[in-house]
Structure formats: structure tokens, C-alpha cells
Amino acid sequence: MKYPKMILFDYGNTLLCEPDWDSARGNAALLKYAAGNPNNCTIADVQKGAEQIFGRYIESVRKIGYDIGSQVGNRVLYESLGITFSLSPVEMETTFWDAACPGAAVPGAGAMLDYINKNGIRSAVISNLLWSGAALTQRFNRLLPHHQFEFVMTSSDYLVRKPNRLLFDIALRKAGLRADEVWYCGDNPQDDIEGAAQVGIYPVWVDHITGKDHADEQVPQCEHLHIHKWDELTTLLEKLKDF
């Protein structure tokens, strides 16, 4: 284990979480910006269509390791209903997402980011997510305003999902660093921890108590650091700094 030049982070249940998710609330907020709705579609109509597009078609693609983003899903959903909007694709993403769940920072995440920023450790994000990197960046700007992420990568912008090594390889290339100079922090034992380890990035399993069920996951089958709170990471970094 060596002091990192950069730490890459997962998004969900690692840095931020999404309590009280309500898709109907998100669709209701988005429908307020409809520029045209000639068929007088209701929230119930939108919800039914979303279950088909996102819950069936897009989810089936995600299960085999690929991603189709919410911008494409929205295009299919709303054009099939004949609804047009006065918003850009990214504005449609954020309007829905912020209303469905405004989100919250995982306890200690802000202080941890302040610490690595102060100590010159670079940072960025790789997330399996339906939302675009642009939409996720806006969420980080709102909930973790002191972050200094050099880039934010989401699977919906890059086609493939973690643990596909392409995402990690691209991140290393963007950072201009070797794998042994980088750590990756995430909550999913397979997608995050084993995914990072396969390219030589040192993985940190951030096992927060956030209501996430790990019953369908296994303990990572690779060398890794296992922490439960962010101050465990900063304590370790402080010890390693002098070596």
C-alpha cells in the first residue's frame, strides 16, 4: 500500500446517497415543462411508459454489462407519448432527478474531500449510472461544493458498466497516472473493488451503513482496504503521508 497521487470514487452510497426516492414525483416535476402534450398524457401514463422503457428495456441491457443513458430513455419515452419539452436533455435529467430525490452527502464525505484536497491528492469519479456525467457533476456541485474532481465518468456516457476494465483504463489515461499511483473507493464488492483491482488500482471497500443490502454480494476476492467511515481513510492517509 503506497500513498496515492489520486483517488477515484464511486457515486452512489459512497459519496452521496438517495433517500426517499419517488419516480412519480420526478415525472410530475418534469411534466410541468411540457411544451406540447397533444394526447393529454397523465402522470400515470408517463409512469407506465417509464416502467416499459427503463424498467424492462434499459434494465435488460444493464444486466449484461452495458448502459443506455436516461437521455436516450427520455427520448424514447416521451416521443412515444408525443410529449415535447422546453428543456435541454441535461435539464430534463436534472429536473427529474432532483425532484425524485434531491440526494444527500454520505456522512463524512465532505470532510474527507477537504482533507485530500488540502493534501494535494487528486480526485475523480467513475460511476455506474443512468444519468450523464454532466448531470452528476451538477449534483456534486450542489451537495459537495468543495470537491475538486478532475473528471466525472458515468457508464451511460461510456456504454460499458463496471467492473468492465475499460472504464478504469480510460480513467488512468485521462489522469496520466499508473495504476499503482491510484486508489479507488466504492461500496460494491464486485463492480468497484474487484473491478479496480483487475487493473492494478488499489481498492478501498467503503462499507457504509446506508440501508444498502449486500446480501447478493460477496466479500471481494482480492487485496483491499475495508473501511466503514470516511475518517478511517483520512487517518490512514495521515499515517502514510510521512513514509
Describe, in plain words, how this protein is organized in 3D.
The protein has 243 residues and is an alpha/beta fold. The protein contains ten helices and ten strands. The strands form three sheets. It has a six-stranded parallel sheet with strand order 7-6-1-8-9-10, with helices on both faces. Helix 1 packs across helix 2 (43-62) and helix 5 packs parallel to helix 10 (230-240). The chain is elongated, with a radius of gyration of 19 Å. The chain starts with 5 loop residues before the first strand and ends with a helix. The relative contact order is 0.18. The mean pLDDT is 95.
How would you sum up this structure in a few lines?
With 243 residues, the chain is an alpha/beta fold. It has helices spanning 23-31, 43-62, 70-81, 89-100, 109-118, 133-143, 155-158, 165-175, 189-197, 230-240, and strands at 6-9, 16-17, 34-36, 84-85, 104-105, 122-127, 149-154, 182-186, 202-206, 225-227.
Distance between the termini: 11 Å
Helix content: 40-55%
SS summary, helix count: 10
Rg from alpha-carbon coordinates: 19 Å
Secondary structure: number of strands: 10
Q: Given the C-alpha coordinates, what overall shape results?
A: elongated
Instruction: Please summarize the sheet with the most strands.
Output: 6 strands, parallel
Enumerate the spans where pLDDT stays under 50 for 5 or more consecutive residues.
none
Mean pLDDT: 95
Helix vs. strand class: alpha/beta
Strand content: 15-25%
Oligomerization status of the protein chains: single chain
Order of helical and strand elements: EEHEHHEHEHEHEHHEHEEH
- How are the strands of the biggest sheet laid out side by side? 7-6-1-8-9-10
